[in-house]
Design brief:
Length: 220
């Protein structure tokens, strides 16, 4: 099996990067990480990459006069490393349209909500403010507008009474750590692809039970 060459973009802690690194250790996993790039110096994610002996570097956006120049520098190192699939994992910069076009349908992002609900920042606080009963996370292909693009996979997470943004964030993050490697496997293996702005290809799914929150037996 030829493993797809993956680049990962981070801005901080890099726990999703950690989940992808773990997944890539499986011999039958269809991808391997060949480069990690952070736009913020000295973040924890860079240490995770170094510990896994993955080439990692910082391209500090503050060193560039414009978003275009920053994205051009990013594209250069990714191209030179032979990256075929790009994964944003807690990467906190918006890309230029040129960059998005260059990586179109080869570029994934994880977002901590069930898109298209709760795009943008402070998702968990907003979920709690709205009184939503179910939230979750989404892995999607990147498009120019923030947190939009064809959805590859989603996981649902119940909002529990007494949840704080922090407690909810921790459970959603745990779901992301399982969802992102799953979604990357689907894309890297060629099991799914984009057709007319929808991700298609999965013809058979396992458990089809809907998730109820509160659970059905407590609802009466
Ligand atoms: C994740 O919840 C991601 O969806 C959001 O920021 C968080 C990044 O966490 N954009 P980490 O850096 O992967 O630990």
């Amino acid at each position: 099996m030829t493993k797809k060459r993956v680049g990962v973009l981070i801005s901080g802690r890099g726990s999703n990067l950690g989940a992808l690194i773990e997944a890539c250790k499986a011999p039958d996993y269809p991808a391997r990480i060949v480069l990690v790039v952070s736009n913020v110096p000295s973040v924890q994610g860079l240490l995770r990459a170094e510990a896994a002996l993955i080439p990692a570097l910082t391209i500090n956006h503050k060193d560039y006069a414009s978003r275009e120049e920053f994205d051009a520098a990013l594209d250069k190192v990714l191209t030179e490393a032979g990256v075929e699939l790009l994964c944003n994992a807690g990467f906190m910069r918006l890309h230029t349209e040129n960059f998005v076009t260059r990586w179109r349908d080869h570029h994934l992002n994880t977002h901590p909500s069930l898109l298209p609900a709760f795009r943008g920042l402070h998702t968990h606080a907003r979920v709690l403010d709205e009184g939503a009963k179910i939230t979750g996370c989404t892995v999607h292909f990147v498009r120019p507008e923030m947190d939009t693009g064809p959805i590859v996979a989603q996981a649902a997470v119940q909002v529990l009474p007494g949840d704080t943004p922090e407690s909810l964030a921790a459970r959603v993050l745990d779901a992301e750590h399982r969802l992102y490697p799953h979604a990357l496997r689907l894309v890297a293996s060629g099991a799914v692809h984009v057709e007319g702005e929808h991700v298609v290809g999965i013809t058979q799914i396992g458990d089809q039970a809907p998730l109820f929150s509160p659970p059905l037996d407590e609802a009466l």
